[in-house]
Specification:
Radius of gyration: 18 Å
Helix content: 40-55%
Strand order of the largest sheet: 2-1-3-5-6-4
Largest sheet: 6 strands, mixed
CATH topology of the largest domain: Rossmann fold
CATH class of the largest domain: Alpha Beta
Number of domains: 2
Mean pLDDT: 95
CATH superfamily of the largest domain: Leucine Dehydrogenase, chain A, domain 1
CATH architecture of the largest domain: 3-Layer(aba) Sandwich
Strand content: 15-25%
Length: about 260
Amino acid sequence: MKKFALIGNPISHSKSPALFHAAYSEESKYDLIEKDTIEESVERLQQGGYTASNVTAPFKEEAMRYVTEPSKVCKALQATNLLLFKEDGTYGYNTDYLAVRRLLREVMTAKKVTPQDGFVVIVAGCGGAGKAAALAAKDENLNTLITNRTEEKAAAFATTIGIKAVTNPMACKLLNTLEPANVLVIYTLPQKDELLYPLLLNLSTKLIGIIEANYKNPCLNPTTGRKWLLYQAVEGFRLMTGMEPNLASMREVVSL
């Protein structure tokens, strides 16, 4: 029986096991491995003989230390949310990136906008999910900037992929000066930022849209959070098993 897992902390609330078992028709095991460090987590995976593992916060960037065969996207992001163990090495992928590209296309289609319209994508947060979202927006040829509490981390990453970086206070100033109908926000912060969150809550109906990594309350747009969860899980399942998932069953798990 093949064994799969999710590593991260905290993850007791995760829907990943339910999503995986809904997708997979064959007998398998999917465990939640909640350890304090990435070292403990990977040791458990290696000793347990796991075929592959999803990776969530706070380990998406640290897990890259164990990847010997990174995808092109992982190299650019220096973050991974999927480890695939093979005889010739540990492969790393980033399915957050794929999920966000799909979500961006859905929003643009629904709002009847294109990259040529020149709207701005503001990505809030420069962790693993934020970096994936920023690269996805940039690769969709969108005018993208990334925000962070401190500028140094965001600026260093932004330089590597050719986008702009600002602090959260500066992002608030921009949101107050830009026409909301020309702004799309991707919110990847795990908590309510004291400046950004209330402003986005106030502007939510005026923006092109808000895509959010979170799918639980309190949440700016839980539907996009559930879609993000689903889309990255679908891509992850394909990579981990080489099979097509039972999409209808997966949608039921996330109420879509």
